[in-house]
Amino acid sequence: MLSKPDHTSEILVFTGQTLIRKLLDKVTTAISAPAAGDDNGETRAAALRLSTAVLMIDVARADHVFEESEFERVLQLVESHFKLDPQDAAELVNVASDKADDLTSAYEFTRELHKHLDDAEKARIVGLLWQVAYADGELDKYEDSLVLKISDLLHVSRARVMRLKHDAKMALD
Fold it and tell me: What is the DSSP letter of 151?
């Protein structure tokens, strides 16, 4: 006797992809559109900080091991790079970690960074990503690949990316 095929799992996958797409669309909208009455661009700056932090978490997790040393390094870099107090930095990293849990593509976050940052700022972000990748003392092939992909999406020259990678590695010694 033949049974009726079960398409429940296909529906759940499609629904999950739809929900993730909606979440990413909301983040993109928040990054792209200035808030009403937001004259100083603080909303946009917060969205750019969040995008950077999400990418940092994604790099730290790329090797499927998120060690405490990597978390601490991300926290330290977020605090110093964005000049945040420890509590605000921790909050940003926690929110970024939640967003990174649902991340399907770095493109959604890199697109806005590319659009709103100059070449020097994009290079600083790539430098931060290399520092995160080396936070545990070694560079995993998945971390390396992800940083290279993100740097391509940010349109940072390969020569500059390699220099930033070298600098991050030398900082370990």
Answer: H
- Rounded CA Rg of the chain: 18
The per-residue pLDDT for range 83-118, each reduced to its tens digit, is 999 999 999 999 998 888 887 788 888 998 999 999
Name the residue with higher pLDDT: 39 or 110: 110
Q: What is the largest CA-CA distance in the chain?
A: 69
- Please say whether the dihedral angle defined by the alpha carbons of residues 109, 95, 78 and 50, taken in this order, is positive or negative: positive
Task: Locate 56 and state its tokens.
Answer: 């940092």
Q: CB within 8 A of 44, min separation 6: which ones?
A: 31, 34, 38, 116
Query: How does 32-49 read in b/e, with b if 16+ C-beta sit within 10 Å?
Result: eeeeeeeeeeebbebbbb
Q: Write the burial class of residue 14 (CB in 10 Å: 0-12 exposed, 13-18 middle, 19+ buried).
A: exposed
Per the confidence metrics, is the pTM higher than 0.85? no
Identify the residue whose tokens are 């990054």. 31
pLDDT-above-90 percentage for the chain? 51
